[in-house]
Amino acid sequence: MRGGFFGFEGYPAHMELEADVCVIGSGAGGSATAAALAERGLRVIVLEEGRRWAPEQFQGRAPWAFKHLYAGRGTRATRGNAIIPLPGGRGVGGSTLINSAICFRTPAPVLAEWRGTFGCHHLTDEWMGGCFDRIWRTIGVTVNPPEVQRNNNHIFRQGAEALGLDGAWMARSAPGCQGCGTCQQGCSTGGKLSVDRTFLAEAVLTGLVAVHADCRVVGVETQGDRVLAVTGRTVRPQDYADEGTFRVRARAFVSSAGPVGSPRFLMANGLSDGPVGQNLHVHPTAGVAARFDQEIVAWQGVTQGYYVDCWRDGYLLQTFSMPPDQYFLSFPLVGDEMLAFMRDLRHYASAGVVVHDEDSVGAVTESSLVYDLGDLDRTRILAGLRASARVFFAAGAKEVVPGAHGVGIIRSVEEIETVLHDNIPAHDIALYASHPMGTCRMGNDPARSVVDPDGRVWGWQNLHVADASVFPTSLGVNPQVTVMALGLTIGREVQLA
Which of 165, 182, 229, 447 has an alpha carbon 20 to 30 Å from 70's alpha carbon atom? Predict the structure, then answer.
């Protein structure tokens, strides 16, 4: 086995590869797992369906990004009592290519529940604290300076401080951020340190790790309770069509294909009798836009830089921004109101609510994503929208456009409770979902979990899962740091058959 990064252009019609461990997926979980395995002196092959990109190849346009960097070309969504877009990354680096680089440590109450209720005994405060410290160093976590944050984040901070709320700048793995506002289209400046340029790059430098992009895993070969090999097709990058074939033999396998990809891999190949694909959690979100007299130009500056901590109430408030065409598609105005909104868009700021889902019910099947927003989570979203509107009015907003169909424009603080009342149904909220998790739940009971506390799939000696799908519950904060910490943990525990 030869270490390095490899892509479609150098592949033969058929590849036979062999390593100690094969990792499927190169996102936050797969990259951290590969790094931990390499530190143990193991030879690792990482397989990734998407391309490997250099920062200068990103074009900073949503249509280009949806085609090249997003799972399902940006069309992935859940169905249920509302249709909810559910984006995910595709490429070497996974969703860290397209996220806002936000870094939160796993909340202590969540870790305590994972240990106490689900038996995840490795996840001690001491061990995880060490993982977090290492992650902070590896991916360059920092708080960006005020001049990079720019108006959208500053105006929300101003309103939060006026109301005496518990707000702060968000730590991000973007130490070189220039505030260009294109995080979700790939960071063309290289200021964001996605895992392909940190954990995975460091692992490759050991000479023990080979990353094969443009490789779609399809099947497995098994014997008894062991996986012997995975097989698949190489993907032609021009049109994403299947081209050649490959086969990878290894002594152990780790699925890090994400909370949608990992359960589907297990289901398609009959690799789990547990509740695989069940327990889908997401962080449901919705937003508001607020018009000010002064220009804001929300799409310039850190895309998500400031937050208000309402975690104990079940949600966070976070600023967000996106390109102008995405504002047009995201806010539910029609006719003259939409035309006026777009005409004055440079004067609008935007923020929203990220909910720690509790009573919603979701699942990943082989052909669909199902998610019914629970009533408690629905009312939490509405509470977060009302809180966001109050923050903007406290900062001097003239009017607020809420992300809910049929409610119109809010022109004063007094209107907030009346317009954004708790009876708005789920299907009338302009919902968006971030951070799928939980579909290969970790635990000590095979009837309630898919993997054991070592991340090993029940019933198999040498098959593990290491991504956000192993979260036993919803997290309540942006998950990339927790995913990396679990990758480091499971990488330490992988046993070779």
Answer: 229
